[in-house]
Amino acid sequence: MTNSSIRGRAMTSIKKFKFDTSFDPGSGGTDSRGERKYTTDDLAIAEEAAREQGRLAGIAEARTSIEHTTAVALSRIGGQLQALGRTIEDIHYESASHALKIAVAAVRKVLPDLARRNGLAEIEALVRECLNTFYDEPRVVVRLHDKMLDPLRERIDDIAAGCGFNGKIVLFGDEHLAETDCRVEWADGGAERNLTGLYREIDQVVEKVTGPLPAMPDLAPEPKYGEGPETDHSQAPESEIDASIDVSQGDQVPEKAPSTTGV
Q: What total number of domains does the chain contain?
């Protein structure tokens, strides 16, 4: 290929500049080559669109951050509420336990004196209940503290008559019993009044809730009959009975082993 032919082809591919491209602002459209020309309005619209897109992205990011922060806060609040609930339960438990201990202390303070003042009346009540229930028993044994033998002996006739009991009643002194306690025995059973055992059972129940309690003080000694407040025996009948009553101490009457069978 000759040099003249190369120059000819190069000249045919060159276009003449016609000065038809506009560089004025806002003149839009396309140039002579068909390429898009951007005006200031186009730039403003693009800028506004970019700004709106950024704003929406910021809102979405903020919402995500708020949701995360809220979830973390709610989780912490839930844990704190659970801890608060446990604290309140502990406070209620401690309050109830403290109140129960106060009640037990009050009972311990009052009961010994009440037992001392009403010991004979309570013993009579137990004997009367047993005779009313087992009125057809041929023989009933009553065991009580030595100091309470004479006071009960003075009342036993009226008690038996009031219960319609026609069998034999045997009184035994037992120094191992408290002055407030007694045991009533018949052929196939028995009943007892045991305040020390009752206090022990109460303590066992309370200690399951409150923990160990202080030791129970000993019962106050029972006054001799006639020294303490008088007991009202006005309800006891005055009619005579045919019951054969033996008042004994020691080994005059064979002792029967106490039975745990209740009335």
A: 1
Mean pLDDT value across the chain: 73
pLDDT at 238: 35
Q: How far is CA 140 from the centre of its chain?
A: 45
Give tens-digit pLDDT for 84-134: 888 888 888 888 888 888 887 777 777 777 777 778 888 899 999 999 999
Q: How far apart are CA 109 and CA 216, in angstroms?
A: 10
Integer angstrom CA distances of residue 203 from 66, 96, 206, 208, 260 = 57, 16, 5, 9, 21
Residue 260 within any structural domain of the chain: no
- Separation in Å, CA 15 to CA 3, 10, 11, 18, 58: 21, 11, 9, 9, 50
Residue 143 lies in a domain: yes
Q: Which amino acid is at 34?
A: G
The CATH number given to whatever domain includes residue 210 is: 3.30.2320
- Provide the domain limits for residue 160: 119-247
Position 43, amino acid = L
**Does residue 35 form part of some domain?**
no
The whole-angstrom separation of Cα 178 and Cα 175 is 8
The answer to the question of residue 60 being in a domain is no
Rounded to 5°, angle at Cα 202 from 181 and 177 = 15
DSSP class of residue 148 equals: G
207 phi/psi in degrees, rounded to 5: -65, -25
- Per-residue pLDDT of 143-200, as tens digits, reads 999 988 999 999 998 999 999 998 999 999 998 888 888 999 999 899 988 887 877 8
Place of tokens 């020309």: 37
